[in-house]
TrEMBL record:
GO terms for biological process: immune response. GO terms for cellular component: external side of plasma membrane; extracellular space. Residues 1-16 form the signal peptide. Keywords: Glycoprotein, Signal. Residues 198-287 form the Ig-like domain. PANTHER family: MHC CLASS I-RELATED, SHKT DOMAIN-CONTAINING PROTEIN. It comes from Callorhinchus milii. Belongs to the MHC class I family. This is MHC class I protein. Gene3D superfamilies: Immunoglobulins, MHC class I-like antigen recognition-like.
Length: 288
């Protein structure tokens, strides 16, 4: 559910983000169902931790993340998140009351984290949202909160008066968080200290209301992230129709599917999917 959060972070292409560590907190309340809470940690595009009201234990979701904390530290984080669960479920009701909402599904969300940028600088961020709309965001330069909704003004005024706490939030976001980010990147790199070859599969798919075929080239399980997928027909390069973009797998590897639409007749046609990746000694593989 954290994908609902419309936090106004800049795009990678604009900011030059190299790596990021993000934590998403989501509390949901409805008159007809039990309230739920979840917390998810993300390293770049890979989920690394999870806690939720159905399984109330903070746990690693990558094998290498188990080494990040000692057993008693994982338990300590669980205790903290159980308190956060109570806090954010209470915040849902406060936001509902201030918004004059009595029914329906209501969602309160919080995101915090930090970024390493390509120029070597760092950036921290903290933002709140309610029912898909921004509530509050923290300005790291002025050490004040920006209210994006009238229901957040009282909270902004209260929090702005707590200078020492706001200074700590800046220090944590731009220093402590970045140290954790670097540690997690190191553990991830140790687990994937060499490139991993992709598995490449080509198959033909029927097309709705068309006699042609859509060829799909699935490239999955590769690391590092950089890959190039192209198509050839009878030895000549042909453009792809579309692709999924590079998508993270659950195990820190990646996948992409490239598509090429063809027209009949197909009987003597030979189409090949070319994959270039650093894990191949010759630099590429071909599947026809």
């Amino acid at each position: 559910m954290w994908a609902l959060l419309p936090i106004a972070l800049c795009l990678t292409s604009v900011c030059g983000e190299l790596h990021s560590l993000r934590y998403y907190y989501t509390a949901m309340y409805s008159n007809n169902t039990l309230p739920t809470f979840s917390h998810v940690g993300m390293l770049d595009d890979v989920q690394i931790t999870r806690y939720d009201s159905e399984r109330p234990h903070n746990r690693p979701t990558q094998p290498w993340m188990g080494e990040a904390l000692k057993p008693d530290e994982w338990e300590s984080e669980t205790v903290k998140l159980s308190e956060r669960q109570k806090l954010y479920l209470a915040n849902v009701k406060i936001a509902m009351r201030r918004s004059n909402i009595n029914t329906g599904l209501n969602v309160f969300q919080y995101m915090s984290g930090c970024q390493l940028l390509e120029d070597g600088s760092v950036r921290g961020f903290r933002s709140y949202a309610f029912n898909g709309r921004d509530l509050l965001s923290f300005d790291m330069e002025t050490l004040t909160w920006v209210a994006s909704s009238p229901i957040a003004r009282l909270t902004k005024e209260k929090w702005d008066r707590n200078g020492p706490e706001n200074l700590y939030k800046k220090t944590y976001s731009e220093s402590i968080c970045v140290n954790w980010l670097r540690k997690y990147l190191h553990l991830q790199q140790e687990a994937l200290d060499s490139t991993v070859k992709p598995k490449v599969t080509v198959r033909a798919l029927g097309m709705v209301n068309s006699p042609g075929l859509r060829l799909a080239c699935l490239v999955t399980g590769f690391y590092t992230r950089d890959v190039r997928v192209t198509w050839r027909h009878e030895g000549q390069d042909v453009p792809e129709t579309t692709n999924t973009g590079i998508i993270p797998n659950h195990d820190s590897t990646f996948q992409i599917t490239s598509y090429h639409d063809t027209s009949p007749p197909h009987s003597k046609d030979t189409y090949c999917c070319h994959v270039q990746h650093s894990s191949f000694p010759e630099g590429k593989t071909v599947v026809c």
